[in-house]
C-alpha cells in the first residue's frame, strides 16, 4: 500500500454516514482506494442499491472533499446504486448537490447535513449521560467537565464541535438542537426522545453491516 493510499484511508475515517453516525471506513462502504499517477480513485459501495440518494451523495461528496487535500486529482465512484450514473456525473463535474439532482433536491446539502448532525448529537448526548442516569444522578446543571474521559464523551464533544456548540468544561451537557440548555422539567422527555434516536441509529448500523456483508459476499462467491 502506497503512503498516499494509506493517507487517503486515514482521511476517509472522518467521513461519516449521515444517518448511522459511523465512519464509512468502519461500515465497510469503502470498497477500494487506488493511486494512478497523481490521481486517487476511490470506489464506494452501499448495503442496498436503493439507499437514499441524498445520503449516498453526501458521503461521496464528503469523501471527495477530504481527499482533495491529498492529491491534485480525485475521482470518487459510487458503485451498484440505482442513481450511480447521476451521482457519479455530478461528482465528476463538481456540480454540487442541486446541480446534480436539479428539481429533486428539495433541500440544500447543508440543511441535510445539519439535520443529521443534530440527530447524531442527541444520540451522543444520551449515550454519554447513560451512566449518570443509571446511578440516579442529578442531570440538570451537569457540565462537560463532569463527564469522564471516555470514548462516549469524546464522541459528544465531536458532535458539539460540528454544530458549533461550546466544548469547554463549564458548558452544560444537556442542550437542545440549537445549543440552549434544557429546562429541568423537560429533561426526562428530552432524554427519552434522544434515547429513541440512539437506538434507531445503532439498530440501523447493525442492519446495514449485515446487509452489506450478505450483498457482496454473495457476489464474490458467484464470481
From TrEMBL:
Transmembrane segments: none annotated. InterPro entries: FSCA_dom_sf, MIP18-like. It holds the Pfam family FeS_assembly_P. It comes from the Bacteria. Coiled coil: none annotated. Residues 8-76 form the MIP18 family-like domain. This is Iron-sulfur cluster assembly protein. It comes from Amycolatopsis dongchuanensis.
Amino acid at each position: 500500500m502506497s503512503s498516499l493510499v494509506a493517507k487517503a484511508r486515514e482521511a476517509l475515517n472522518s467521513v461519516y454516514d449521515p444517518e448511522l453516525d459511523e465512519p464509512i471506513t468502519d461500515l465497510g462502504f469503502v470498497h477500494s482506494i487506488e493511486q494512478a499517477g497523481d490521481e486517487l480513485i476511490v470506489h464506494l459501495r452501499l448495503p442496498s442499491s436503493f439507499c437514499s440518494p441524498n445520503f449516498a451523495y453526501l458521503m461521496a461528496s464528503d469523501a471527495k472533499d477530504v481527499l482533495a487535500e491529498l492529491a491534485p486529482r480525485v475521482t470518487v465512484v459510487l458503485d451498484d446504486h440505482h442513481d450511480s450514473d447521476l451521482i457519479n456525473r455530478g461528482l465528476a463535474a463538481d456540480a454540487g448537490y442541486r446541480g446534480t439532482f436539479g428539481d429533486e433536491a428539495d433541500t440544500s446539502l447543508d440543511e441535510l447535513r445539519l439535520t443529521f448532525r443534530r440527530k447524531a448529537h442527541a444520540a451522543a448526548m444520551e449515550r454519554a449521560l447513560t451512566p449518570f442516569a443509571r446511578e440516579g444522578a442529578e442531570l440538570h446543571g451537569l457540565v462537560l467537565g463532569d463527564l469522564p474521559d471516555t470514548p462516549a464523551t469524546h464522541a459528544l464533544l465531536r458532535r458539539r464541535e460540528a454544530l458549533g456548540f461550546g466544548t469547554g468544561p463549564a458548558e452544560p451537557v444537556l442542550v437542545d438542537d440549537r445549543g440552549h440548555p434544557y429546562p429541568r422539567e423537560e429533561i426526562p422527555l428530552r432524554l427519552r426522545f434522544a434515547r429513541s434516536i440512539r437506538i434507531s441509529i445503532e439498530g440501523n448500523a447493525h442492519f446495514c453491516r449485515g446487509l452489506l456483508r450478505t450483498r457482496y459476499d454473495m457476489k464474490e462467491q458467484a464470481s
